[in-house]
Design a protein that fits this description.
The protein contains nine helices and 13 strands. It is an alpha+beta fold.
Length: about 270
């Protein structure tokens, strides 16, 4: 068995789409030490393949190196094909698209089969966001000019059991939500109806915070969010509810993956 075959086999068995590995973990899988260049040079982790047998190990398994953090001895792999390796998918498409014996494939069916080969390629959809810092919840008044009366995403950050915990709010009115949250924070929403209190549940209870808790506010305003698909992107239209919801959900997922909770609320 070649030196990097165990890594190829390990990646081929994974069900994850993204796998973050420490260099020590990789050496355990390989059963031998990585070369010093793997710990010192990012180019060792490129996805060129060719005669570079170590890179072929992950490429042949249907993975690529997404990014590295060699200061932390960390390498993040991302699956190229969610359904398996590109070689396996190409073979399945060839078997599916090939006409059966004695049959002729109509032109429309042939074109559709060709189009489906592209449509079934894996896609990567990500969000780029530039947060605007607003300040402490207790210090930012309801009438503050820092909060615009426009749609956007509101992030509330606090400590829970000593750890950073965030709430992401998909808001149709940033200023209106902030005013409602401040009222709830002060205990003034006891008798409120929607949207300040829904089903008798106060806003701070829906967010899981106690009155007087130290909280920091950031907002995502129109023009400060971009939706990227396979490296190509455009500005997100936060005035459209479905697009704003997509942005908020992606941000909440990112917060959860970072270990910050990422509770999501629509208001």
């Amino acid at each position: 068995m070649a030196k990097y075959d165990p890594l190829r086999e390990h990646l081929a068995r994974l069900d994850e789409v993204v796998w973050a590995a420490k260099l020590d973990d990789l050496e355990t899988i390989l059963g031998s030490n990585l070369p010093m260049s793997a710990r010192e040079h990012r180019t060792w982790w490129a996805n060129s393949g060719g005669s570079l047998v170590h890179q072929n190990a992950w490429l042949d398994a249907g993975w690529r190196v997404d990014h590295t953090d060699l200061k932390r001895d960390l390498v993040v792999f991302r699956r190229l094909r969610i359904g398996g390796t590109s070689l396996a998918q190409a073979q399945r498409r060839a078997e599916t698209d090939a006409p059966k014996s004695g049959e002729t494939q109509p032109a429309d069916a042939a074109r559709l089969a060709q189009a489906m080969a592209t449509l079934r390629e894996s896609v990567s959809i990500t969000i780029r966001a530039e947060w605007t810092a607003i300040g402490a919840l207790a210090d930012v008044a309801c009438s503050s000019q820092l909060l615009p009366s426009e749609p956007g995403v509101y992030r509330l950050t606090r400590l829970r059991d000593g750890l950073v915990f965030t709430c992401i709010v998909d808001s149709r009115d940033l200023a209106g939500f902030h005013a409602a949250l401040r009222r709830s924070f002060k205990g003034l929403d006891q008798q409120d109806t929607a949207p300040e209190a829904v089903g008798g549940v106060r806003l701070i209870d829906r967010l899981g915070i106690e009155p007087g808790t130290a909280c920091e506010i950031d907002i995502l305003r129109p023009g400060n969010a971009w939706i990227l698909s396979d490296g190509r992107g455009r500005g997100a239209d936060l005035a459209k509810s479905q697009e704003r919801e997509l942005v908020a959900r992606l941000l909440a997922i990112q917060e959860r993956q970072s270990g910050r909770g990422g509770r999501l609320l629509r208001w």
